[in-house]
TrEMBL record:
InterPro entries: MetI-like (IPR000515), MetI-like_sf (IPR035906). This is Sugar ABC transporter permease. SUPFAM superfamilies: MetI-like. It comes from the Bacteria. GO terms for biological process: transmembrane transport. It holds the Pfam family BPD_transp_1. Belongs to the binding-protein-dependent transport system permease family. The lineage of its organism: Bacteria, Bacillati, Bacillota, Bacilli, Bacillales. Keywords: Cell membrane, Membrane, Transmembrane, Transmembrane helix, Transport. Residues 76-266 form the ABC transmembrane type-1 domain. One of its GO terms (cellular component) is plasma membrane. It is a multi-pass membrane protein. It is found in: Cell membrane.
Length: 280
């Protein structure tokens, strides 16, 4: 009887958890659903009372309007190039720096690490003017490298990698590799990398989505429409006197779909990487 009562309590508690998680998921997904509804509706539906909650039939027509206003696919390609390069470079630099801070002893290590963490509390808007001046002097204005270079050093990535490597990579394993004559980079490549794949997947999701959603710096640096990212290109849709909300939402919707696909891909990689890392 006691076991039955405990199982009923547990099942009741699990039911409440599932109900809460289901409601939270619905609330999280509703903005995406509303965006899809607006992307399939005329502009007048944006301010309609009561609000429109069912999809319309203008998804293709609204997207054609987007294609007539901006070079959508070129902008998407520019965004993929920027996000892909930034993600790969951040993963490489952050994992190397995290490995150094976690497993090596050198003078000033704690001071350098604290200085890196302190940069996380500085609002990025404060560095906009000096960063623009440096990029201008380097001749990188209105170029994709000028957009990328500021995001190569990621304090959050270094912190995450340092914490993960400290807990997941045994010191004895590194000492054994050194006794076998392995260089530091070979230890990083052959021992550390296979273990930190789960952290790679997690950090990759964070960096890619953050780079995709970046707008202020891209809007400041880029001038040529051929170099526009999707965020800057979509901002041009609202520069007309009569704003077509259906067209804007259609552009936002189609610009979000590739990001969701990439997120799902990295999410599956994250789950499989946990298994691979535990086995290794």
């Amino acid at each position: 009887m006691i076991k039955l009562e405990k199982s009923r309590k547990l099942s009741g508690g699990k039911l409440l958890v599932y109900v809460f998680l289901s409601l939270a998921a619905l609330l999280s997904l509703f903005p995406f659903y509303w965006m899809f509804v607006m992307a399939t509706s005329p502009s007048s539906a944006y301010n309609s009372i009561p609000p429109t909650i069912t999809p319309g039939s203008l998804l293709v027509e609204n997207f054609k309007k987007v294609l007539n206003q901006i070079d959508f696919f070129q902008s998407m390609w520019n965004s993929f190039v920027i996000c892909g390069v930034v993600t790969l470079v951040v993963l490489f630099i952050s994992s190397l720096a995290g490995f150094a801070f976690a497993k090596f002893r050198f003078r000033g290590k704690n001071i350098f690490f604290a200085a890196i963490l302190l940069t996380m509390i500085i609002p990025p808007q404060l560095g906009l003017i000096p960063q623009y001046f440096l990029i201008s002097k380097a001749g990188l204005l209105d170029t994709l490298p000028g957009v990328m270079i500021l995001f190569f050093l990621n304090p959050l990535g270094i912190f995450l990698m340092r914490q993960y490597i400290s807990e997941s990579v045994p010191d004895e394993l590194i000492e054994a590799a050194k006794l076998d004559g392995c260089s530091n980079f070979r230890i990083y490549r052959s021992i550390v990398l296979p273990i930190i794949l789960p952290a790679f997947a997690t950090l990759g999701i964070i960096v890619f989505t953050a780079a995709w959603g970046e707008f202020l710096w891209q809007f400041t640096v880029l001038r040529d429409p051929e170099n526009y990212t999707i965020q800057v290109a979509l901002a041009q849709l609202s520069n007309t006197r009569n704003v077509d909300f259906g067209m804007i939402m259609s552009g936002v919707f189609w610009a979000t779909v590739p990001l969701l696909v990439v997120f799902l891909f990295f999410n599956r990689l994250f789950i499989s990487s946990i298994t691979d890392g535990s086995v290794k």
